[in-house]
């Protein structure tokens, strides 16, 4: 429960700086006895006389490994007697040699790359990639555990709870699943199990494949820093609920109707903040997926930064009834 509340509380998307401190204690040993790996040199050139690599900064976090190699470094070779395309290439990612595979330089990992013409002319690059938008790098925990149904918003919230880093791009991930956050897209009727285009469910073997529709990047037409790509397969156990254990929930009994400030006036932000403010209303998250699917939401702007949102229970819901209007502010 504490983990879930932490996730929901992060809906404010406030990034905190965390400092790790390593304490060294004297145990009578010798410093020379402590094994240390040699430092990782971000960029090193041996040979290639006549070429100037002083402009290369392999540690620049905004510089992708692909651009570093195939635009900046390749550009340095242009017009010289060296042919960049003739260089041999060796690539190790996370200590695994991937030279002979189709390499995706945007995937997360620690890379060691060697480009060489011969033993006397060698370029080495060391770079850590942490900005991958491959869906398998976003959804690293693939077992969703027990879920009540296989509706898109149920899968969405279960995936977020199992992969807490996604909370930092909550709206982006939600819209990837279900499209633009409009009532037309998000307020689906409870007895419709219309799946989002990118979610493929196999109910026989209890798997869910998230397919972005983009397997590879075309550098000229796609932006791997902005768009998800690739596929990932999830597993789940289906444990449906027949109805609420304590009777149908009346939304009019909502205690906290002021959601205060939200980062964005979006449907997903309102849902999540409403949940954090009114946990008992959904039986401390027991009816979470039912709430997201059975309760419809509309948002209206009432002032410069002021909004109100109306949450209305679908008339066939077994868990919720009536409606409530809440208020909040947003930029």
From TrEMBL:
<feature type="signal peptide">
    <location>
        <begin position="1"/>
        <end position="23"/>
    </location>
</feature>
<protein>
    <recommendedName>
        <fullName>Lipoprotein</fullName>
    </recommendedName>
</protein>
<dbReference type="InterPro" id="IPR054816">
    <property type="entry name" value="Lipoprotein_mollicutes-type_CS"/>
</dbReference>
<keyword id="KW-0732">Signal</keyword>
């Amino acid at each position: 429960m504490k983990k879930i509340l932490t996730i929901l509380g992060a809906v404010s998307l406030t990034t905190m700086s965390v400092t790790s401190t390593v304490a060294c204690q004297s145990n009578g040993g010798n410093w020379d006895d402590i094994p240390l790996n040699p430092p990782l040199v971000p960029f090193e050139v041996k040979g290639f006389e006549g070429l100037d690599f002083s402009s290369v900064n392999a540690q620049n976090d905004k510089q992708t490994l692909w651009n570093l190699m195939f635009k900046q470094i390749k550009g340095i070779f242009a017009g010289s007697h060296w042919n960049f395309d003739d260089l041999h290439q060796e690539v190790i990612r996370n200590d695994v040699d991937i030279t002979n595979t189709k390499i995706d330089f945007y995937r997360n990992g620690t890379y060691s790359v060697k480009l060489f013409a011969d033993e006397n002319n060698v370029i080495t690059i060391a770079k850590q990639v942490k900005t991958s938008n491959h869906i398998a790098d976003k959804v690293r925990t693939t077992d969703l555990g027990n879920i009540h149904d296989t509706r898109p918003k149920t899968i969405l919230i279960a995936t977020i709870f199992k992969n807490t880093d996604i909370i930092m791009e909550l709206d982006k991930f939600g819209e990837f699943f279900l499209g633009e956050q409009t009532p037309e897209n998000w307020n689906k009727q409870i007895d419709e199990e219309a799946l989002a285009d990118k979610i493929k469910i196999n109910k026989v073997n209890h798997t869910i494949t998230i397919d972005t529709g983009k397997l590879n990047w075309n550098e000229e037409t796609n932006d791997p820093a902005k768009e998800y790509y690739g596929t990932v397969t999830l597993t789940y156990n289906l444990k449906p609920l027949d109805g609420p254990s304590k009777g149908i929930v009346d939304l009019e009994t909502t205690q906290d109707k002021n959601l205060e400030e939200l980062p964005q006036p979006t449907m997903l932000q309102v849902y999540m903040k409403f949940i954090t403010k009114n946990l008992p209303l959904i039986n401390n998250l027991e009816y979470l997926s039912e709430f997201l699917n059975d309760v419809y939401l509309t948002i209206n702007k009432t002032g410069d930064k002021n909004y109100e949102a109306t949450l209305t229970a679908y008339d066939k819901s077994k868990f919720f009834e009536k409606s409530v209007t809440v208020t909040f502010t947003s930029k």
